[in-house]
Design a protein that fits this description.
The complex is a heterodimer of chains A (384) and B (130). Chain A has 384 residues and is α/β, with parallel strands linked by helices. Chain A contains 15 helices and 14 strands. A seven-stranded mixed beta sheet of chain B has the order 1-5-4-3-2-6-7, with helices on one face. Chain B has one domain: Phosphohistidine domain (Glucose Oxidase, domain 1), CATH 3.50.30. The chains are: A alpha/beta (384), B alpha/beta (130). Chains A and B meet through helix 2, helix 3 and helix 7 of A and strand 1, helix 2 and helix 3 of B.
Amino acid sequence: MELTREEESALKGEQGETMQTAYRILVATGEATDAERLVPIKWAHLSGVNYNTIGDAGEEFLSNISKEARVKVKTSLNPMGFDIDNVENYNLSENFISKQLSIKKSYETMGVMPSFSCIPYEIFENPEEGTQVSFAESNAAIHANSFDKLKTNKESAFSALASALTGKSPYSSLRKESSSKLTIRMKVENPDELTYGMLGFFAGKVGNESVNVSGVGKMDHRSCKSLCGGMGTSGTCAKFDFDKDNPESEKIDFDENEMNKIYDELNTCEKGDLITLGSPQLGLEEISDLVYRLKGRSFKKKCMIFCPRVVKEQATKLGHVDKLTNAGCEILSDCCTCLTPLIKKDEVDGVTTNSIKGAYYLQNSNGVGVNLKPLSKIIEDETK
Amino acid sequence: MRKILVHGKVKGTILKSQNPINFLGTMDKKTGIINDKSHDLFQKSVKDRILVFPYGIGSSVGAYTIYSIKSNNSAPLAMVCEKVDLTVATGCALANIPLITVTKDEFSLLENGKEVSLDTDLPNPIIFPG
């Protein structure tokens, strides 16, 4: 990699230990991903926030680095493990809560915005087309590259943090113009958001870096998010193109048969003890839509709704939170279904959800069964 | 392919594995001992060795495990892999452990128990004494 004189000096430690560590991460990541240089970025979004995933080692590292480190660019943050406003409902250990709050404090000390959201593209204004950003959350990186005309690698928690501290990121493949080497022909008719989630999961499995999809019509926002969440869960891809068929690209069909294979892999039980909506977290539009669809009906079992804090505040003002609470929902901000410590296998056998990303992690990390259904079917079956 | 991911200069004894290593799942972060029964380094500690293995696997959070073994003074002196992966690359960067990748032929020359010097500033970073 070619470094500028200033970057070389930082790597040698002449600008302090924190900068040296940050540049060491950027150089290691850049060499690993064949980047020839570093480029400036305008926005970093960090993962590695939930104590359930980063553990004591992560908590200690962040606590140490936050003594000196300060972010240089706008930096937002992924969800953490719980919502402090209702954590008392969930029998979490005191150790978990205090370690999680220490992580929160470390990020805040570094100057990171405490957004605790996996949908930065929905709660912040997007910069102009072509802006280089550095997003670690996979669904957000895919959304940024595919729908928001931004450019990011599928960053790791570490490269995104190093980008936040330096304002730079390796100039790797996804930041450059290139066409997808694989085209998926969408053959499933009448798709809903669950179908798109499975299409994304399929794309992540078969693709590498980016995938072109042909034959999808206009998707609503819920379906776009589901598509990005699915792809981020199953592989290392971080971009969709649509109908940009490159004649040399390999073609593969996503049909009923492929869809059913994924459904059978992720749908592991017939009914859930509770329902979760969100992974990715719900935006205001989806919450308003849910209130509209319920039309005064109530859930027969507890429904956990995950959204960013700012969305909950807006939904509260609009009266949605009261209506949803009365309909048997609990609205949780700052956290998400994915890798949640709030759903435990000794308390819950199965969870109903419309999220492919949620389903994967509930099964593999929480060890509970998953009953997958689109939202329309959840409302039809689970409300009265 | 030969790549220098984290720079450094060390001298030590090779501990070689033919199996990929999952740092998050199988390494004790206090002692640096591998606790996966099916692994060829089962019950061996990576501490103060030049750890040679094909590549890392598993969650990217494994990078924090590499940081932990370094904080607990149980880290290898350096790592040499055949294939690069982001977990090991970022973990070694966090912990400041020299890391290089080598070609398949070079990888096969690195034998368990051999003494070597590693200097990432040299055109041939691995030197066999004698």
